[in-house]
Design a protein that fits this description.
The protein is of the alpha+beta class and 599 residues long. The chain contains 26 helices and 16 strands. The protein has 5 domains: 87 residues, Alpha-Beta Complex (DNA Primase, Chain A); 137 residues, Alpha-Beta Complex (DNA primase DNAg catalytic core, N-terminal domain), CATH 3.90.980; 126 residues, Dna Topoisomerase Vi A Subunit, Chain: A, domain 2 (3-Layer(aba) Sandwich), CATH 3.40.1360; 68 residues, no CATH class; 120 residues.
Length: 599
């Protein structure tokens, strides 16, 4: 809801060094400033702030962003709150908006103020902000319905939840009936409004063109993204109906594999505890919070993904997966383990807690209390122990065939582990269980000389920087290079697909935002690419520019990159011409081939 030009102007006025130094003391280190990272535990500073380009990057956990994202991640503010904080700091007035869609606490005094006016809905193209507005209105409606539903209130009381807790999580109730949202949205029957509600996942239109509310007779749990905006819902039945839980469908706002329930609200508690508990359900998170355990999150009806784990490891060094002890719970834990192996480092600690049979975090903490639950947390099984416990289950290690199967099953898992010390520990444990020597196992598993090989490999990879990588780096460092870039040189290569796509995204953005490329005081352009699927790659590449200095050297690298791209183009064209027989070449093609051969 805040105009993009205002955000650009704000970031141009704010000095990121001053903004961060208010919270985390920075020290000058060459052209940049450094500190121990506030987002993960470390003894040697790896958190670096560029005053020139106005961004920060942690070489330890990968945290990256501008002054706004720092306040969001560090202080747990919503996007709007962070903008307001920075604007007040530099004496700017934030433009007044009709709807504040980012607050975790929603004013319930007047439902009418959240109704969307006709002009706000009837846009030819649906934007993410349109859908965020719709989700805010629906949330307010559901919360109002909870206040007047005796059945829903009785259900929550039966589950042991207080009204204060329900309000803090913005819980609501979707009443029974097929078209309750009709009373909330103007022009409900219009094609534009229906299209908006369908894309938000709030209504369904069947094959007979009849429309009805997706959520009916369910307790509603708003799902917030990292900016604190409501992007989806989880709905739980009150009776024994199926499905027990119903989530919003995938939309342009909401991807289940990328969001975690309560992550936005729990970030500060996670950092303070240096621990996060990953549970299975909404009620688990809420019950734990009501008992004073605020550092819990839940996956949204899907397995814990690598994206979830990466997100959490940016906030804490310790993750405890707390699932039911039944078959489904252990399967979910195993999937979480598999998705963690490639991401875990030697300074991170992942463990698994399985509560007594018949208990989940909700029931356990309500029955036995906070202290007892926290004692259970201390009994969590380390990743290394859980891995081999599961692999050995059902295998007879007294037989050669059983030990061979264990080695075979372990191989693809161990090959994913990049943490040198953990990899060595897992390998030594496999030596004990299999009875095979370490040298023989290293050959079998193709992980020979883990530590030295990895170091050499890392050094080698650093040298193997593609031309597209170099171009991205230079455009991020100095967007005005876009004016000198020959677009005809950008031809995709099979081995550089992701980098090429990221480069094309960056080039397309700079082409349509010429004022950013021309401005001498432009902050990092990644400010405007926060929703790009290549954001992580672009952030990693931008971090490499923190040590750049001499503009003449950068100019020479840019020209050299263009020259090499041109050579690749020439070689490719020569191959195309040589593929034709000489008598089939036109006179123009013959001249072109002769010219290329002389270059």
């Amino acid at each position: 809801m805040i105009p993009q030009p205002f955000i650009h102007d704000l970031l141009s006025r704010v000095d990121i060094v001053d903004a961060i130094d208010r919270h985390v003391p920075l020290k000058k280190a060459g052209a940049n400033f450094v500190a121990c990272c506030p987002f993960h535990s470390e003894k040697t500073p790896s958190f670096t702030v560029s005053q020139t380009k106005q961004f920060y990057h942690c070489f330890g956990c990968g945290a990256h962003g501008n002054a706004i994202s720092f306040l969001i991640d560090y202080s747990g503010l919503s996007f709007v709150e962070a903008v307001r904080d920075l604007a007040a700091y530099v004496g700017m007035q934030v433009p007044v908006q009709q709807v504040d869609t980012t607050s975790n606490q929603i004013d319930t005094n007047d439902l009418s103020q959240y109704r969307i006016e006709r002009d706000g809905i009837h846009n030819s193209e649906v934007s993410p902000q349109d859908l965020i507005n719709v989700m805010q209105v629906a949330t307010q409606f559901y919360r109002e319905q909870l206040k007047v539903s005796e059945k829903a209130i009785a259900y929550l009381k039966k589950r042991g939840l207080s009204g204060k807790t329900a309000a803090r999580f913005a819980m609501g109730y979707a009443p029974a009936g097929w078209q309750n949202l009709e009373a909330v949205f103007p022009d409900y029957q219009s094609e534009e409004t229906r299209g908006l509600l369908v894309k938000a996942g709030l209504i369904i239109i069947n094959d007979e063109a009849r429309q009805y509310d997706r959520f009916r007779d369910r307790i509603m749990f708003p799902i917030l993204n990292q900016k604190g905006q409501i992007v989806g819902f989880g709905g739980r039945v009150l009776e024994q109906d199926e499905p027990k839980y119903l989530n919003s469908p995938e939309t342009i706002l909401f991807e289940k594999g990328r969001e975690l329930y309560n992550f936005f609200s729990a970030r500060r508690a996670i950092r303070e505890a240096n621990c996060v508990i990953v549970v299975e359900g909404y009620m688990d998170v809420i019950a734990l919070s009501q008992h004073g355990i605020d550092y819990a999150v839940a996956a949204l009806g899907t397995a814990t993904t690598s994206f979830h784990i990466q997100k959490l490891l940016r906030q804490t060094d310790r993750i405890i997966f707390c699932f039911d002890g039944d078959k489904a719970g252990r399967k979910a834990a195993w999937r979480a383990l598999e998705n963690s192996l490639a991401l875990i480092s030697d300074d991170k600690y992942l463990s698994f807690l399985f509560l007594p049979e018949g208990e989940d975090p909700d029931s356990y903490v309500c029955r036995y209390g906070k202290e007892s639950f926290e004692r259970q947390l201390k009994q969590a099984i380390p990743l290394s122990e859980f891995l081999f416990k599961e692999l050995c289950s059902g295998i007879n290690l007294q037989t050669g065939e059983g030990r061979a199967k264990l080695v075979n099953d372990t191989k693809p898992l161990l090959q994913q582990v990049k943490a040198p010390a953990l990899s060595l520990i897992l390998l030594n444990r496999l030596v004990e269980l299999s009875g095979i020597s370490r040298d023989e196992l290293e050959d079998l598993l193709q992980v020979k000389r883990i530590s030295t090989a990895r170091k050499t490999g890392n050094a080698h990879r650093k040298q193997q920087i593609t031309l597209y990588h170099r171009l991205i780096r230079m455009l991020l460092y100095s967007p005005n290079y876009i004016a000198k870039l020959d677009r005809n040189l950008l031809v995709e290569c099979s081995e550089d697909t992701e980098e090429f796509a990221a480069l094309k995204t960056l080039v397309d953005f700079l082409n349509t935002h010429a004022h950013l490329a021309e401005s001498k005081s432009t902050p990092s352009v990644l400010t405007y690419l926060q929703d790009s699927p290549y954001r992580t790659l672009l952030e990693s590449i931008e971090s490499e520019t923190l040590e750049w200095g001499d503009p003449d050297d950068i100019e020479m690298e840019f020209l050299d990159t263009l020259k090499k791209l041109q050579q690749i183009q020439n070689k490719k064209r020569m191959t195309e011409l040589h593929s034709k027989s000489l008598d089939r070449l036109t006179d123009e093609e013959k001249r072109e081939l002769q010219r290329l051969a002389m270059l």
